[in-house]
Amino acid sequence: MNRLYSFFIAAALLLGGCYADDSTGAYKTVESIEITGVPRDTINFYLGDEIRITPQIAGSGLTYQWGMGRYTTNPNNGEITTIFEEISTEKDLVHKTAGLGHYYLRQVVAGNEVSVIKYYHVFVNSEFEEGHFVLGRREDGTASIAFMKTLTPEEEEQGLQPRFRQDLFEYVNGYRMGVDPIICHKVHNSLFIACGESQRVYQIDAKSFQLQFMYDYSRYAADFVPLNLMAFDGEYCLNLVSTSANGGIARIQWNGLDIFPFTELRSQVIFDRVAYRQDGLVNCRMCFINSAQGIIYAYGFDMNNPPNWYSYMPCYDHFVGRQILHAFQDAQLNLIVYSKQGDTYLRTRVGSFITSFVTFNSLDIIFELPCMVNTHLLTMDTPSVHNDLWNCLIFADGNKIYRWYYNQSDLPDAQYITLADGETVTALGLSADQRQLFVGSYNPSRQGHKGSYHVFNSDTGARIGQSHEGVSDRPVTVMYKVR
Predict the structure, then answer these.
(1) pTM of the model
(2) Of 4, 191, 296, 473, whose Cβ has the fewest other Cβ atoms within 10 Å?
């Protein structure tokens, strides 16, 4: 729905002065131009809305010019380099927004002896520009999207209240996504949603939720059923990698709109689990895991594989015969593995190079310690997220949320966040600064939508704002979607 916004110009600019008359030595007062209105120089609109600015201008014999262009800066010195295109020569501006993004608007009011220039930042937003996002799973197994947008200052002034909207993929595209949603990643300006049973990944525009492309694994290999999707939101993330329940590893090259074999690791092992994280700004550091057999292939230094010294290698079979219960990488890319060998639970921390530079033919084990407290809490299916700000793994069991610090041997003996009875945490996420913890929970006895959304301080566990109950289907991925 288009909205009509009227703005009276933001600030009062008064330029007055005098100059010396050379013939008489007297002073002559120069005319002044005064622009008054609502004090705001940042304006938010929605795509398709008309920008309407009706200034109050004091002065005589005036001319007007409005110019507008994409807001750009010189990356070296930050200097604004926007190229302005004239859009009006009228006093009042009426201009229809044509594209999403950040624009720079210039208003020039000129008289016989003086002119005034004023600039505005104009954000042309989509209906789903920025806010809280939930990928959900319906009772029939199909994927759904719920979203609560962050209000603009104009909407807050109007007294609007943020709220979740449901079924937004269908609202935009007219049909449902596939069955068995696994995960959603934001990469650049797109969201990638993987659906296992349907063997598909949906690439949708992150701001409009409009389908851009659909990747069909069954065309790549008839029996390729994705179990995961590894990616990160970075400039150099061009590949999204998945393993299959029936074996094999495939990668989506989204800039080429196709699926290719992942040739960096050639193995007949079926990898049912993965661990991954962004490596600096460039790569996605991945680990491939067969949890039942204790096989872990990780990227590291391999003395036995010249000239490809760095490659994916089987961790010197150190974990073979164990049950891998959980695995992740810390901020230094050390691999942390929680495993079970017989009746003993072990926590192993492996150096980021994987290979020991002492022996050159064994695993670089920083420590391997037994765990004896709450050993049942953590499995490969446990919702979790690693928080580098506080150096801990945050994970959930039922309606309780725990923190396991990297320097602890035993699992925590007490939770630091507890949801209401009947809730089961199904998804966790973190804000960009890692100070806010996003929690998706599921209550099968709730009427209507059974999924809820919560925000907590990731350090203290204090709730931030109100909980949003019954706003989604069973949460699979929760995140704050940035512009």
Answers:
(1) 0.79
(2) 4
